[in-house]
Amino acid sequence: MKVELQNLTKQFMSRHKAGEVVTAVNNFTFTIPDGKLVGLLGPSGCGKSTTLYMICGLQKPTSGKIFFGEDDVTQLPPENRGVGLVFQNYALYPHMTVKQNILFPLQNLKGADKLTKEQMLERAYECAKIVQIDELMDRKPSELSGGQQQRVAIARALVKMPRVLLLDEPLSNLDARLRLQTREEIKRIQKETKITTVFVTHDQEEAMSISDMIVVMKLGIVQQIGKPQDVYNSPANLFVAKFLGTPPINVFGGEVKGGKLCIGGEEVLDVAGVSDCKVYVGIRPEGFILREDGPFTCKLQNVEVMGRDVSIVATNNASENPIIRAIIDADNLVDTNAENVRFALKPNKVFLFDKETEERIYLDGQKPTEIPR
Ligand code: ADP
Ligand code: MG
Question: The whole model's pTM is what?
Answer without folding.
Answer: 0.93
